């Protein structure tokens, strides 16, 4: 490696590891501080997660846990050298100081009261005329949109302080993916976007929190729907290799500009909007999804082809690190139903989807 490249790498605060021919050839100072100064010439296997040191993609962003610390990882392959850049995921100080459990409880209480009021109005307006039905659908849509925001905030806070409950059980990933795609396709029929699911496996059993896996998948589908124009395509795939499952969400949308790739997992960042790839809207979805995947000892990998689309993979071990034998001989998880789908897709669905026809 040229000295000029080494000098540039030393300027950054992120840890950068260069890998060539299966060996670590260079580490900048932050990388040495993270992994130690005796790694040059050694294999990166065991030091870095496998998904960062394998694969042929020349540029991708992925979630990674190194020494129990969560990082946003950038992987680039230039002239046969793989550069892995690790930047620690941290919540902004302002968010952690201004939003506490008491405030969260107040907002959730308000959301509950709004939902209760909508139910009362719905009971009063019986039978309803078209105008009343349309306005109730708009009210329901806004209720689910607020619920989505507060759900992500609550999850983010709970992940940060370690209080988020997980309910692990035996789930069938193929059934979850198939059910979600079938329902989302129905809700999005008017968008003119082809949504399909394919897998060579009739069943893939995993020991995981089914509701959390559904949330991750729905968030990725929501992002694809927001960034895929009419006539586009979203493909969800499910594969298995050994004790690991791979759920992929591929779209033919606008993609993410290269200069924004390092920000996609950032909490409270502004996220890309289809109307303009350089305009952003706030959201916690990918940050929460990354954290939920990591809580399953998994990861998210995002690859973008600007102007062509995105490919996102959920890497999910079929057994948790604290689990050795299936506790149940059969599947004991029932999907979360329409309520979760309407919540997670509230930013991309029209108000017509929040009529009595679709509500649980």
Written account of the structure:
This protein has 360 residues and is an alpha+beta fold. It is built from ten helices and 14 strands.
The number of helices is 10
Query: First CA to last CA: what distance?
Result: 60 Å
Radius of gyration, whole Å: 22 Å
In helices, the fraction of residues equals: 25-40%
Structural class: alpha+beta
Task: Using the alpha-carbon principal axes, give the shape.
Answer: elongated
The helix-strand sequence is: HEEHHEEEHHHEHEEHEEEEHEEH
Largest sheet: 10 strands, mixed
Spans where pLDDT lies below 50 across 5 or more residues:
92-96, 270-282, 322-329
Counting DSSP E segments of at least 2 residues, the number of strands comes to: 14
Mean pLDDT: 85
What fraction of the residues are assigned to beta strands by DSSP?
Answer: 25-35%
Strand order of the largest sheet: 2-1-5-4-3-13-14-10-9-7
